[in-house]
Amino acid sequence: MHIVIGLILVLVIMALLSNRKTRGCRWRMDRSQNRDGRTYFKCMACGAEAFTLNGQPPKGCEKP
Question: Which domain of life is it from (predicted)?
Answer without folding.
Answer: Bacteria
